[in-house]
Write a structure and sequence with these properties.
Helices cover 25% and strands 46% of the residues. By secondary structure, it is an alpha+beta fold. The protein has one domain: Hypothetical Protein Pfu-838710-001, CATH 2.40.320.10. A hairpin with a 2-residue loop joins strand 6 and strand 7.
Length: 174
Amino acid sequence: MLEVEVKAKINDLEKFEKRLNEINAKFLKKEIQEDIYFNHPCRDFAKTDEALRIRKTGNETFLTYKGKRLDAETKTREEIEIKCGEEISEILNRLGFVAVANVKKVRREYLFEILHICVDDVEHLGNFVEIEGKDLKDKSKIFEILKFFEIEKSECLTKSYLELLMERTTSKFL
């Protein structure tokens, strides 16, 4: 499946949430997500622009593979996700995969037309919005909605939370 995603920092969360109400975005759920990212034993996912993670949310566990980015303006990539048990972590470890980072966030998810709007409070990074579609045709609609939220294209990020967290951690020690 294809995922088309645009992410931006939210500077004024209260104002952003008021705008969500103005467009009648339908609240879907609030959940705590913990993502554990793994690196392959024979290739560096940071260099190949791939990602493998285990997401724990509530009592559910998912294994997700994300392929290389397909678009420069958005974080568009192939995404394969399966529901599994917590034992998947042990399987990955025994196969030589190494856990490299842990990203924790509180996510509030909304639906607006065919797009998912996720408001994330990411531990150590702050508040972000991710707007997600399933087709490259959704890209213009995503940027249109961001403009409504007074977020310009130039403010959008193509980096993952993992990349942002790794940059922050690295810069703390330089």
